[in-house]
Task: structure prediction
Amino acid sequence: MDQHRPSPHREKTRQASMSRYSVSLRLAPLPAPLKDVRQDEDESMSGEISPTGKHPGPGSSPELRASHADRDRVVDTLRVAAGDGLLTMDELDERVEAALSARTLSELTALTADLPPARATGTEAKDVVRIEGVHSGAIERTGRWVVPRRLELMVTYCEVTLDFTAAEVTHDTLRIDISMTGKTLTLITRPGMVIDTDGLHLLHSSVKHRRTSTHPDTPVTLRVELLGQKTHGRVVVRPSRRTFRQWLLGRPAPHSVRA
Result:
């Protein structure tokens, strides 16, 4: 008799145990897939949070920040729209306030979303524009006007105001040849403008140049050179002022720079 051969009873018991084990393997649920721990670590270390307070998902990009130049362009668009009758003064004040405090480009885009695209003026900048006047009324260039390449100012006892706040600038330099006697020449500037009065000869006259603080990254968009002679009177260079309503509400003037 073979001593190593198991008895029939033990063989039957072993087969029954194996059958129960195979059934338990088939019925046991599969373990849940492990979450990639590295993904959580990357999300927690990145520190990027969307405007809704959640971490951005795969493929999302953060909001693009607005620069001072971006805000100025939107303010210019709003002022022109108000001049065309598309915005009331209250709407203009509200949107200018929002533009000056906007942090992202999407916030600026929302302020002009209901305005038609800016229309081309169809007027090219002239090489030379000559302004003459003798004991006449005030001479003004305000609103939306095209800045020439060179301006000849030949006036006697006439107030002259050149407001560049909403002017259309098509080049980076303007030369103003001055032969002016009496009264005041006023230049109203905006950010990105540089006024050079070194070439102007003053005879019984003075220059009052009010400079405002601008961001060091603000690009120079227009350089104005004053040449010639100013006799009697003043030359005033200043930024745009607040309206009476803006003053009452404590709002800044258009194009002002906030700290």
Remarks:
- Confidence is low (pLDDT under 50) at residues 35-56.
- Helices lie at 8-27, 37-46, 68-83, 89-101, 105-111, 244-249.
